[in-house]
Write a structure and sequence with these properties.
Among the domains are: 331 residues, Kinesin (3-Layer(aba) Sandwich), CATH 3.40.850; 133 residues. The strands form 4 sheets. Strands 2, 6, 7, 8, 9, 10, 11, 12, 13, 14, 15 and 17 form a 12-stranded mixed β-sheet that branches. The protein is an alpha+beta fold. Helix 5 packs parallel to helix 15, helix 17 packs parallel to helix 23 and helix 19 packs across helix 23. The chain binds adenosine-5'-diphosphate and magnesium ion. Magnesium ion binds next to helix 3. Pfam families: KIF9, Kinesin. GO terms for molecular function: ATP binding; microtubule binding; microtubule motor activity. Belongs to the TRAFAC class myosin-kinesin ATPase superfamily. Kinesin family. InterPro entries: KIF6/9_C (IPR056524), Kinesin-like_fam (IPR027640), Kinesin_motor_CS (IPR019821), Kinesin_motor_dom (IPR001752), Kinesin_motor_dom_sf (IPR036961), P-loop_NTPase (IPR027417).
Length: 814
Amino acid sequence: MVKQTIQIFARVKPPVRKHQQGIYSIDEDEKLIPSLEIILPRDLADGFVNNKRESYKFKFQRIFDQDANQETIFENIAKPVAGSVLAGYNGTIFAYGQTGSGKTFTITGGAERYSDRGIIPRTLSYIFEQLQKDSSKIYTTHISYLEIYNECGYDLLDPRHEASSLEDLPKVTILEDPDQNIHLKNLTLHLATTEEEALNLLFLGDTNRMIAETPMNQASTRSHCIFTIHLSSKEPGSATVRHAKLHLVDLAGSERVAKTGVGGHLLTEAKYINLSLHYLEQVIIALSEKHRSHIPYRNSMMTSVLRDSLGGNCMTTMIATLSLEKRNLDESISTCRFAQRVALIKNEAVLNEEIDPRLVIKRLQKEIQELKDELAMVTGEQRTEALTEAELLQLEKLITSFLEDQDPESRLEVGADMRKVHHCFHHLKKLLNDKKILENNTVSSESKDQDCQEPLKEEEYRKLRDILKQRDNEINILVNMLKKEKKKAQEALHLAGMDRREFRHSQSPPFRLGNPEEGQRMRLSSAPSQAQDFSILGKRSSLLHKKIGMREEMSLGRQEAFEIFKRDHADSVTIDDNKQILKQRFSEAKALGESINEARSKIGHLKEEITQRHIQQVALGISENMAVPLMPDQQEEKLRSQLEEEKRRYKTMFTRLKALKVEIEHLQLLMDKAKVKLQKEFEVWWAEEATNLQVNSPAVNSLDHTKPFLQTSDSQHERSQLLSNKSSGGWEVQDQGTGRFYVCDVNARKILPSPCPSPHSQKQSSTSTPLEDSIPKTPVSSIPLTGDSQTDSDIIAFIKARQSILQKQCLGSN
Ligand code: ADP
Ligand code: MG
């Protein structure tokens, strides 16, 4: 058992704006416990909390300042926890802090760069690397991903569901057994045999989470996400299994309802926005008070799920994420205070070992059979009916293979049936007699042959003896040679086995590199897991395809609008950047793959050459009647050192390719996710545009859809025509395709139909009331939106009009 208080770490996020000096300081004297001091500026301290104290000091295990990178965080915080999970203890890492302080960045990672990947992907990488190294145990890894929003649990990994809102995901409920163990009903566990499979699951869950989020639920700030790695291990042949769970938790934003600063003791009274965080605090308070017997775990789903992590059988670590900007100081102080309380909680982690009943049953069944056999022998209870033909045949087969088996330890197992035992003896006797007769026959015929010949002459006899001696020598040489060859062949086989194994891990990159642009995937997983790999990939790509591939089902107008939206979107820069990096990595991997292939065939050739050389040497020795030279010749030495060199080169390239593979996989997943996000935001924007259009359309107002405010124009030279320049930065435009007039608010990425759709409005518009005032306030929800091709073409016309205006503006300003 390991007793340990919850470890607390702090991480300070780099500020969005330039660093505001003097707000905090970190004291990291090696002999003392590191402390973080938050200094309140005078203007804030005035009327602030706790009798206007101006500075607050908090102790942490370690404090990571703004410049700490993801690698440092992983190495110092997550790696030790992952290590104890590998040893069989439960572990939890949770990030706590206000929205925007870097919880998701720390736990999952940033959405842009590969180097920004967070604790989850790095931990997966580390765990799978360690599992591969340890061949003394059989490991199984499962992944689950749970989201808790509003006291409801949702399974983010359910493959059967296409989540477009949280409610579409399967609901997870809590069950408690008589021993008060918590079980989660409906939370699926997914087997992951490789790092990639586990990574795919992480991205699948994250994508589901993103898609399910709506402006109404704001799940990313108000929900808790628990990514769990379930690891079980057992030694071969043993019935004892160890189970360990690692929860990686991204909590909801810890901001409170009332912003302090109004004075007094508001800070302590302020309630969390998220009720379950309030319950978490209650649990923490109860645990940190010494003589409390009742801990209110059951108050919320999150505290129930994390029950073991808080004051139970678990090694737990908390990361307090801090955004130490002036306006966030009160929240940062709350976060630190919470951490100080958490640090008082003692956990007791034990090894979770259990006996696997299935394995025990198997072992017992075998034992029972053996005992039955023994009993039958001892009691002499024997069967009397004759053995069938088939049984006899089977027995004879057994005897033959027993006799052929070179292993001196081999046994003839026929069970405790005396009929069979007797038959075996009979059969063996028969075989032995047959052999004797045969030998007698040969010997007697040979002796007969000799008898009829004259006795050998002395000289002939000597000659024959010499020849015999010579042959003996040759045989000895050949036996030696064979032994050496056999040894080498075994080594070669062993090496080839290793190569094959390594290659199976690397598998296709050198051979099947796809062009990232064509959407092909570089699959580098190990062969046995490939089928599953593809199924997971299929799972992911079907989801992503559905999300990204929606474009293919879009009307042409919508597609065009999507292209424009994409071009203007900030994320497209990231996507493009990642595409470039991906391209680079792909070509690097391709080149590397080719070099690896070359190195491999070179290794093959060198081995072949060495073998040939060796055979030549031995043959030479035989022909010259010499023993095999003890010293290998120089040429062979040279070949061997070349072989070693080539193998080293191969290994270096192989390691690099492996790293590249992980990076490529990660980048592809990042891009997939970014694309889904883009698509989602486009849909929202599109719906908004459609709503605006319909809200303002006189056709809607007059309820007369057949008579739109058409203005046919004769001019076909230009599709859109600039009519006036509104002082507000908006423009009125007539679209020649539909003949409609639009007001384009260039700044707000909004295009609204003109309230006065007449060409004569030119004059009016300059004096007209502000645009917003003239928009009828129709409730948005009451307007039908999608699937209306009229709406589609309207919007596309808007966008085109807007484009043309922007172009004209650009030309004007140049
Ligand atoms: P939270 O999950 O706590 O609401 P996020 O992790 O989403 O906050 O972080 C908010 C923003 O700040 C994101 O854009 C993220 O990339 C960025 N960010 C957070 N922490 C860091 C950091 N340590 N280094 C760089 N960027 C960060
Ligand atoms: Mg977050």
